[in-house]
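ugh ok so i messed up the first submission bc i forgot one of the chains. this is the corrected input, ALL of the components this time, i swear. 808 residues overall. if the numbers dont match what u have on ur side tell me asap before i send this to the collaborators (the ones from the other lab, u know who)
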Amino acid sequence: MTRKQKRLSVILGGLAFLAAATGLTFYALGQKASYFYMPADLTTASVQPGQRIRLGGLVEKGTIQRGQGATVAFSVTDTHKSVKVTYTGILPDLFREEQGVITEGTFGPDGVFVADSVLAKHDERYMPKEVADGLKAKGVWQESKSE
Amino acid sequence: MVEIGHFALVLAFALSLVQTIVPLFGARLNNQRLMAVGGPVAVTGFALTALSFVALAGAYANSDFSVANVWENSHSLQPLIYKITGTWGNHEGSMLLWVLILTFFGALVAAFGSNLPATLRANVLAVQGTIGAAFFLFILATSNPFIRLNPAPIEGRDLNPVLQDLGLAIHPPLLYLGYVGFSICFSFSVAALIEGRIDASWARWVRPWTLVAWMFLTGGIAMGSYWAYYELGWGGFWFWDPVENASFMPWLAGTALLHSAIVMEKRSALKIWTLLLAILTFSLSLLGTFLVRSGVLTSVHAFATDPTRGVFILCILTLFIGGSLALFALRASRLTAGGLFHPISREGALVLNNLFLTTATATVLVGTLYPLALEALTGDKISVGAPFFDLTFGPLMLPLLVLVPFGPLLAWKRGDVIAASQRLMAAFALALAAMLVTGLFIDGASVFAALGIGLAVWLVTGALTDLAIKSGVGSVAPAVMVRRFAGLPRSVFGTALAHLGLGLTLLGIVATLSFGTEKILTMRAGETVELSGHTLRFVGLYPAQGPNYSEDRGRFDLIGVSGSPVGEISSAKRFYPVRQMTTTESGIKTLGLSQLYISLGDEGKDGSVVVRLWWKPLVALIWGGGLTMMAGAAMSLMDRRLRVGAPSRRRKQAVAPAGLP
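and heres the new structure output, hopefully the right one now
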């Protein structure tokens, strides 16, 4: 095989790879990326039951209910709207009332958000960034909360 | 001492400028004396940086809270080991560790580079000096760890409890040795571009550095993964978190570099590609530093979010990546292309490996950066997690893993796939058997589990086949075989070990994901629970007091067949009063290669506790495979042919044979 042919085959092979990978990547981004919402966004955005999203906000005061076994129900609020969430598992160490959380999961047909993961950030000095940004956008952010 | 450290850091910055300018001009003017400046300056720069680092570590060890950085990240009640590791458990200190390792590698080139061509050595040191200068300036301008507080506080604010762990002593230094180790490959590449000349001796130099960096990076990632596994209490070993991806991308590109450097060294082909790959690998290291240190990501690793730092690192990133790629575009055409080979050959296999690995790197890059780009452009916040990578990274890795055992069995220049396949028949039969056994005889095994186990066995047996064939199993007498086996080049063992390690890691991942079990329940003292054939009794919660925390320790007994306890596991909820933080200490019991993992949740009002239990079969193989890969790299490094000092030793022997016994 001549140098030219070799180079051509490498380039073509590489392009084929790249095309396959690009196709996969776009497909996966369309299908598998989960969008972040705060409760008030859900009135305008159309989220289907079963569609995977991340829901963030503050844990509403007085809504944490320990149910059967390790199932916990609580509401996530952005002070305008709140959404009921259920979660089975161990809540993160920093999970508290009026703390920022991000939950990931899907809406059930009854409108309750069933989370399969709940994140509260490790460092209590910081809100989850998405939640902090969202609260700022909604005008309910108090700087003092970040420190 | 602190002021001495600060002063040493400023001096090191000044020296890095000297190291950048003087050898570079020396090389241009072909002035030996100017070029010779580089070596001593690099060594002195390293010594000064080390002094500066020791000064900071000393301030941490002595809890000198008049230093702002110590005050923010330490506490007098911390155990000494965490006081010291706290030195790099924060943004400023970890950047200091970064430059310490950078100058360390520069000093190594200076110390062991006496057999390098003088101009190449001068240019390499100059490029290394430039990187150093940029990061010294970054530290001094935006992240100075030596700033004093007046008046000095009496007590510090404690190190983030999550970081108060032995993992902090091991993970960051290893990771940085890997990350920053690739700077040498980068410097060699840029130096080659500056000279417009590249030859096989260049590859002989670059390959060991790549191996060293790759070895440490592998260890750093494996250690980080294990740390996250036991510290975070979620039982996961990899989260596709952007920060993890930041270290994984240089690893993937570095793996590609490792393989293309073999082709370049042995066959002097793929020169330009290897050079580009070396640049890209270190660029990804820099990108990782940017992602982690700039605060664009929220993560455990993002210690601080100061926008000026982000902008500064972004400038460094643009300068080095843009500069080196521009130089590449200008000069690459001057480099002569190397040897020819048939597509089906060892070279061809390594090219294929590179295609797969670089494409996989690209998908990880897209998955990591796309959410950032989308948020900047549209404001939409998305998260790209495991489902995305399973769909993109997974399909790219599968064919690569299938092909791995073929590579070492193909000849250089022109290989024979059929002959290689015949040699792999035994491995293939074993893999098929493992697949069938898994699929048919293990309850609840999915098709993926069977395929995964089969693939892992294929990799392991394929690696062993390579060794067996090369030592002549089946064709020569056993005694000859043993002699041949012992006489195999160390790099052959290195390859086999690394590929074996890959198989072990895959086996661990597939077994844990497919056959692991999990239970979440509330337990009271005295209750028992069964999980995958193991019976655990909850003994009770016991309060205890640590040096700087209080904890509730949940004790569990592992009940044997006879009904009596055969082992104990304990998991704790710790409360660190200084930071008002709670952490979960998971309880892990290793049984063979598998682990029982317990994590405590909240305590109920009636004395019951939420408990999460996992059975993780063969989970230890995930990191054991990483260690095996490291061992493979170490083995390759010991190969006499690759040892950098080897040529000079031979020369000395030739000159003075009489002096040898």
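quick check: Confidence is low (pLDDT under 50) at residues 122-126, 143-147 of chain A. that seems consistent at least. The two ends of chain A are 67 Å apart (CA to CA).
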